[in-house]
Amino acid sequence: MKPIGIFYGSTTGKTEIIAKKIKNQFTDTQIDIYNVRFASEKDLEKYDNIILGTSTWGKAELQKDFKDFLSILKKANLRGKKIAIFGVGDSSKYPVSFADSIGIVFEVLEGKGAIFVGEFSVKGYHFESSLSIFGDKFAGLPIDEDSECDLNKERISMWTDLLKLSLN
Ligand SMILES: Cc1cc2nc3c(=O)[nH]c(=O)nc-3n(C[C@H](O)[C@H](O)[C@H](O)COP(=O)(O)O)c2cc1C
Fold first, then answer.
1. Separation of CA 83 and ligand 1 centre (Å)
2. What is the pLDDT along the chain (168 residues), one digit of tens a residue?
3. Which of 9, 24, 84, 109 has its CA 20 to 30 A from that of 102?
4. Which residues line the pocket of ligand 1, CB cutoff 6 A?
């Protein structure tokens, strides 16, 4: 598999932890992790496989650094690249906007010629609404590090198995 760039935004460190856990699932592949606070358009364009991760901070609100990074994402040439998104949230405290971040990022990038991979089933999640559902699936992997952290190991493993079949 070609190298993967993981780009994350994290306020209290939870999304950063998940980014590292995702990296650990790919033992035979080069994976570089970037905090979006320090990442550029050039960093993004180096990869044919990109994983984007950000938490949600209020209804339809992205984590601050990732919000700032959107302008770079919009400018970058992402044509033909495979992109997977994960979102970190809390389904127990914020059930009406659970992991909205995935859907926000997805919509920003739609139409830029990237190929989205890593849709994930809603089965097993407990929430009322989310901007991240398209059709009957999440547009990426939601992770709840606050209320369902016991389920994360399995969710990450299922998702990365999917990515191993669909990334470049
Ligand atoms: C003020 C505040 C608002 C939040 N809003 C949401 C939300 O709307 N939806 C959600 O799923 N999680 C929400 N969360 C939960 C965070 O996304 C969650 O704690 C996440 O793990 C933080 O990740 P980070 O430390 O990587 O930024 C909120 C947390 C706080 C403190």
1. 23
2. 999 999 999 999 999 999 999 999 998 899 999 999 999 999 999 999 999 999 999 999 999 999 999 999 999 999 999 999 999 999 999 999 999 999 999 999 999 999 999 999 999 999 999 999 999 999 999 999 999 999 999 999 999 999 999 998
3. 24
4. 10-15, 55-59, 63, 88-90, 94, 97-100, 145-146
* CA distance linking residue 25 with residue 91, whole number of Å: 25
Q: Give me ligand 1 centre to Cα 97, in Å.
A: 10
Q: What is the pTM of this model?
A: 0.98
4-166: CATH topology is: Rossmann fold (3.40.50)
Rounded distance from Cα 67 to ligand 1 centre (Å): 14
Give the residue, by CA position, lying nearest to ligand 1 atom 1.
57
How far apart are the C-alpha atoms of 9 and 17, rounded to whole Å? 11
